[in-house]
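User: Predict the complex with guanosine-5',3'-tetraphosphate.
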Amino acid sequence: MQQFQWYPGHMTKARRAMQEDIKLVDMVIELVDARVPQASRNPDINTLSQGKSRVIVLNKADLADDRQNKAWAAYYQNQGYHVVMLDARMRSSVKKVQEIIAQAGKAKMERDRRRGILNRPVRAMVAGIPNVGKSTFINTIAGKAAAKTGNKPGVTRGNQWIKLNKSVELLDTPGILWPKFEDQTVGLRLALIGSIRDDIMNITELACQLILFMQEAYPGVLEARYELESAACSNLGEAACILEKIAEFRHCLAKGGAFDMDKAAALLMDDFRSGRLGKITLEIPESEQA
Ligand code: G4P
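Assistant: Here is the predicted structure with guanosine-5',3'-tetraphosphate placed in the model:
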């Protein structure tokens, strides 16, 4: 996972760089993490992209709840975005991306044609917060073309155009902005998916927060995986008791025979992040909330 240390100066610089890059393109392809499609967006990307064709990629859709993927796709489509659900690691994503870009670029192509401009490619850039899968996406979509650009001696990376087909060119470097932590739940959700380093979050508390969430949104899952009679809990204290039961079931013992809660927490978080607890979405769109 890429790690960034961001200071206000970096943020201003990154924002300015993106502002410059956006001037060069017709289309912004914004990647979000399908498990947290709201918390993994930086609202500045939205502001900077006004007036461009807009694509939202619900990436890591393989780890998120299918029903919620559909709900989020509808939510963003209603706001005028072109949306695609993706596992950016898969070759089969290439076709889906080509299709959505064609769809999103149609209006621009038609505008060009009316003005008598023919064969001018649609130019696009990828943007998103760290760890949503931007590099993976570019590698899968552009493949060898991207690697070639970077490997040519004397060619500095940055502002190189990768030709995806005869009508689309992609900027080789993505726009990266750090998420905004205006709301505490944003930080918590990003920590849960592993986008914030575990050593700056308390892993045991994080695991307890996950247990609380799972009980409410996906009851029965923890019981089945860790053979628990019940994982019912309504506060962090009770969630810690469930974590202790998980420690017992998975034989997480510290020296002296006490339960190793940190180990159990790390194990639970790993099960969740790698999809072993199933496809789970941590946020639901407003339209779905009761
Ligand atoms: P970034 O450029 O936006 O920072 O993200 P990057 O492509 O580096 O991807 C971050 C991690 O997410 C990588 O895991 C990558 O394999 C994984 N990833 C990207 N797209 C998908 C997807 O659609 N589905 C799934 N399941 N995983 C995806 P990694 O290299 O193993 O890093 P990490 O696990 O150490 O974070």
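DSSP finds eleven helices and seven strands in the chain.
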